[in-house]
Amino acid sequence: MSSTDLVPTTSGAQAVQAQTHTDGRQFLTFRIGEEEYGLDILRVQEIRSYEAPTRVANAPSFVKGVVNLRGVIVPILDLRIRLGQAGEYNAFTVVIVLNVAGRVVGVVVDSVSDVLELSEDEIKPRPDVPAAMDSRFITGLGKLGERMLILLDIEAMIKSPDFGLVD
């Protein structure tokens, strides 16, 4: 093997561009009840197992309390309750820690599935039908084979006056 065998045929800038170029967006997928949802992976800070938070007096039922996450007090919202679903806390229950609207917030979901990349062709516009969930919080529907994902605009949801977290 000669030293020229180790030299890439494209320039460094072209090689980096080829590695970082993607045609789609990445979503963290999770389950609430029988439905599968997706949210922009860039909003996710970390995924933690569920631990009972410290309750906050007079908080809405979907606000489970707060936890101390490495010195930061993080409100924990049960997204299942917020979306009108009942949920039990078990070994699969997780908290997705998000960085949205300049805040760190944890949302409780039944389980996390995986990270998927969806091309623009795989993302369909949100339907114009009455839904239990406010359609302002749905950016579209992701279709991968037989899987259908409800793609959430988690930032709009957290900023909503219904949540009461952002002025």
UniProtKB/TrEMBL annotation:
<dbReference type="InterPro" id="IPR039315">
    <property type="entry name" value="CheW"/>
</dbReference>
<dbReference type="InterPro" id="IPR002545">
    <property type="entry name" value="CheW-lke_dom"/>
</dbReference>
<feature type="domain" description="CheW-like">
    <location>
        <begin position="24"/>
        <end position="163"/>
    </location>
</feature>
<dbReference type="Pfam" id="PF01584">
    <property type="entry name" value="CheW"/>
</dbReference>
<dbReference type="InterPro" id="IPR036061">
    <property type="entry name" value="CheW-like_dom_sf"/>
</dbReference>
<keyword id="KW-0963">Cytoplasm</keyword>
<protein>
    <recommendedName>
        <fullName>Chemotaxis protein CheW</fullName>
    </recommendedName>
</protein>
